UniProtKB/TrEMBL annotation:
Pfam families: Glyoxalase_4
UniProt-listed PROSITE patterns: VOC (PS51819)
Residue span, VOC domain: 7-147
Species assigned in the record: Nocardia albiluteola
Transmembrane regions listed in the UniProt entry: none
Domain of life: Bacteria
Protein name, per record: VOC family protein
Length: 170
């Protein structure tokens, strides 16, 4: 049995220059609007990286290509999975994300299958939680997201007219 089901929610890239990455997606691929979240801080009380408390800051930006959410991540400070990726391979595809119906069950199943949890963070203000699972031979990571109602509403407010996020009813 698979720990995740349903459509992909997000495709994410790690980049050095978030302005240039936004411009590339806008000019070449028609992503018209971006929501920037500068200086998101993840402290040791809310994040773990490779089984140790972590303390880091990121700039992130979210946009939609049709109904597909895109995320750009530019590390600002501290050691984390994103700085690791930039050091290892440079800018590029970082993870694909799903929002499982039962986050806890999906995470437990992934762990039972021996999948490594590389990074685990919470955003207490909106009750969001996410884990990055090792992609193994895939190279990039798999992200699982716990999205309570406030987080879903935030993402629903960003999606272009005529599209819907995977959890929305038709």
């Amino acid at each position: 049995m698979n720990p995740i089901t349903g459509p992909i929610f997000q495709v994410a890239w790690v980049v050095h220059d978030i302005d240039a990455a936004e411009q590339e997606f806008t000019d070449r691929y028609g992503v018209d609007e971006w929501v920037r979240m500068p200086r998101m801080h993840f402290g040791p009380e809310s994040s773990r990286y490779r089984d140790a408390p972590a303390d880091f800051t990121l700039d992130t930006s979210l946009g939609y290509a049709g109904g597909q959410q895109l995320e750009l991540i530019a590390p600002v400070s501290g050691e984390n999975l994103y700085t690791e990726a930039l050091t290892r391979t440079g800018p590029g595809l970082h993870h694909i994300a799903w929002v499982p119906d039962d986050f806890d069950a999906a995470l437990a199943q992934a762990q039972a299958q021996g999948t490594e949890i590389v990074q685990h963070c919470t955003v207490a203000e909106i009750g969001m939680e996410f884990v990055h699972l090792s992609g193994g031979p895939l190279g990039s990571y798999i992200e699982l997201l716990r999205l309570p109602a406030p987080a879903r509403a935030m993402f629903d407010s960003m999606i272009p007219h005529g599209y819907r996020n995977p959890w929305s009813c038709e």
